[in-house]
């Protein structure tokens, strides 16, 4: 990611501009005033990725503006990143002096949690070998982290290849495994606000929930406590494995998770073709009243969007309000927006997360 224009003094104005933009996008649908959920002004980002840039004999953490790979922004500290990342950065940098750790190291990735866990991925232009692993084990113990070494075709894990997170929703704390290399929400405090908003918006239901794009079960865990049972889908194998572990760790037993894309599940529900991964799932046993979607930036494809029209309630979290508005336009003749929200996941950038509840007219 490119470096945000960090300016806490301008935060309130920027947030007001985002809220105005969301109102404008939702205005054609007579949406209610969005609830606005702000972010901490600093130390909010739980993930960070840096390239390494050499100047003389010194190497520095570096980032680049989008589209420019030749003009580095040298980083000594990173106030948008978590305190844990900032604490680890200089200690890791000092460890580069060890040849087994620093030789041909070109990229560093930090993954931390509100619960205090941390994992660092080190990427190399040479094989990670036994000497690297011995040095990494010592460093991991000194820093109190897990380490992952990556080189072409090889990955070596020292400790765990995931971090543990804890998020409290409506008074209950859920535990999450967040794998290295998989998608997780970058702003933990805002993620917690999103989960609580979605939990409240869905309400207590006596029927079933379909969830598309479930990831590692971020929303699945709390929403499953609001309904009779859940059918959830996700295409990423890493995320599916994490979600299954998270369901077990939290003793959530009313969720069936299937590794299918949203498009494939749409075909299955429309009886276009069968899928072996659904062989043991009785789709007709579900009494779906609600669907929850958290799609990628492109939004829902037209067929999946059309599928959601069948449901009384569509709970939609979006990382791209423009495609959210396009999807609402397709559904507007049968569903109305009854709640809307802005979640400022990405302060000091133009990006924002939005949520809407659509209910049948």
UniProtKB/TrEMBL annotation:
EC number from the UniProt entry: 2.1.1.35
Catalytic activity line of the entry: uridine(54) in tRNA + S-adenosyl-L-methionine = 5-methyluridine(54) in tRNA + S-adenosyl-L-homocysteine + H(+); uridine(341) in tmRNA + S-adenosyl-L-methionine = 5-methyluridine(341) in tmRNA + S-adenosyl-L-homocysteine + H(+)
Gene Ontology, cellular component aspect: cytosol
Keyword annotations of the record: Methyltransferase, S-adenosyl-L-methionine, Transferase, tRNA processing
Biological processes annotated in GO: tRNA methylation
Residues the record marks as active site: 319, 353
Function in brief: Dual-specificity methyltransferase that catalyzes the formation of 5-methyluridine at position 54 (m5U54) in all tRNAs, and that of position 341 (m5U341) in tmRNA (transfer-mRNA).
Family: Belongs to the class I-like SAM-binding methyltransferase superfamily. RNA M5U methyltransferase family. TrmA subfamily.
Name of the featured protein: tRNA/tmRNA (uracil-C(5))-methyltransferase
């Amino acid at each position: 990611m490119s470096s945000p224009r960090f300016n806490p003094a301008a935060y309130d104005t920027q947030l007001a501009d985002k809220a105005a933009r969301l109102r404008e996008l939702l205005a054609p649908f007579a949406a209610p005033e969005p609830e606005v959920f702000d972010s901490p002004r600093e130390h909010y980002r739980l993930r960070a990725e840096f390239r390494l840039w050499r100047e003389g004999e010194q190497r520095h953490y570096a980032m680049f503006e989008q589209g420019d790979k030749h003009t580095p922004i040298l980083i000594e500290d990173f106030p948008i990143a978590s305190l844990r990342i900032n604490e680890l950065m200089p200690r890791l940098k000092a460890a580069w002096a060890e040849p087994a750790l620093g030789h041909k190291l070109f990229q560093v990735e930090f993954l931390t949690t509100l619960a205090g866990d941390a994992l660092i991925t080190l990427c190399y232009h040479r094989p990670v070998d036994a000497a690297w692993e011995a040095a990494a084990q010592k460093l991991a113990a000194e820093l109190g982290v897990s380490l992952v070494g990556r080189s072409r075709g090889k990955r070596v894990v020292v400790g765990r290849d995931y971090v543990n997170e804890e998020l409290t929703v409506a008074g209950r704390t859920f535990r999450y495994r967040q794998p290295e290399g998989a998608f997780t929400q970058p702003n933990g405090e805002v993620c917690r606000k999103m989960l609580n908003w979605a939990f409240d918006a869905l309400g207590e239901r006596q029927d079933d929930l379909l969830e598309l794009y479930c990831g590692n079960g971020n929303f699945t865990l709390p929403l499953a406590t609001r309904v009779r049972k859940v059918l959830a889908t996700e295409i990423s194998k890493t995320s599916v494995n994490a979600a299954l572990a998270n369901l077990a760790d939290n003793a959530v037993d009313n969720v069936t998770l299937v590794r299918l894309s949203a498009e494939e599940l749409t075909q299955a529900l429309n009886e276009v073709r069968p899928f072996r991964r659904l062989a043991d799932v009785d789709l007709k046993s579900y009494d779906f009243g609600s669907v929850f979607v958290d799609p990628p930036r492109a939004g829902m494809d037209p067929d999946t969007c059309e599928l959601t029209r069948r449901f009384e309630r569509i709970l939609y979290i979006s990382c791209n309000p423009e495609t959210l508005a396009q999807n609402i336009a397709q559904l507007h003749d049968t569903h109305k927006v009854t709640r809307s929200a802005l979640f400022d996941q990405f302060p000091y950038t133009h990006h924002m997360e939005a949520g809407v509840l659509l209910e049948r007219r």
